[in-house]
Amino acid sequence: MKRIVLVICFLTVLSCSKNPEIHLKYLNGYWEIEEVTLKTGEKKGYKYNETIDYINVNDSLKGFRKKLNPGFNSKYITSKDAEGITVKIENDSLNLYYKTPYAEWKETVLMANESQLKIINANKDIYLYKRYKSLTLDIE
Q1: CATH at residue 102
Q2: What distance in Å separates the CA atoms of residue 140 and residue 99, rounded to the nearest whole number?
Q3: Quick one: CA dihedral 118, 52, 47, 42, positive or negative?
Q4: pLDDT tens digits for range 60-99
Q5: Which residues contact 36 (CB under 8 A, 6 or more apart)?
Q6: Rounded distance between C-alpha atoms, residue 54 and residue 52, angstroms
Q7: Residue 50: which domain range?
Q8: Domain named Lipocalin-like: which ranges (predicted)?
Q9: Are the C-beta atoms of 100 and 84 separated by less than 8 Å?
Q10: If pLDDT is split at 50, 70 and 90, which confidence band does 131 have?
């Protein structure tokens, strides 16, 4: 009987269509915008970014996002400004709530894996990020 219950529980878990918690482990790190799809369907690609986003969320689902200017050999230039983040799982969605002294807003993670992050904002614009790879120069 216990085996039947375990099998049913296992199949129920597998049959769930969405589990937003799986995206959590990929949020932290350096991200650069690859493409934005506007609500109108218009797409804008980014071949070069002057700034990248650094996201850091801890185990208590709180953290920050900071804009960085990448330099050479994994060095970054940044200000002391950061956007506070609170992560919440609501209605089968992973939501990021941002707060600064000037504004508050919400974004929803549509997808996150080792190499890409896709987020939609309140304007229905979809941001596709790729994992940032720093420039390393071998100088001898």
Answers
A1: 2.40.128.280
A2: 45
A3: positive
A4: 999 999 999 887 666 778 877 899 999 999 999 999 999 9
A5: 43, 44, 46, 125, 126, 127, 128
A6: 7
A7: 19-131
A8: 27-119
A9: yes
A10: very high
Query: In this structure, what token pair is assigned to residue 135?
Result: 């420039």
Of 136 and 5, more confident: 136
**pLDDT tens readout for residues 21-70:** 899 999 999 999 999 999 999 999 998 888 999 999 999 999 999 999 88
Q: What angle do CA 131, 25, 54 make, to 5 degrees?
A: 45
Beta strands in the chain (DSSP E): 29-37, 43-45, 52-57, 62-70, 76-78, 83-90, 93-99, 104-112, 116-121, 126-131
**Smallest Cα–Cα separation from 82: which of 50, 118, 117, 54?**
54
And the tokens for 7? Answer: 């099998």
Tell me if 124 is assigned to some domain.
Answer: yes
Does residue 78 lie within any of the structural domains? yes
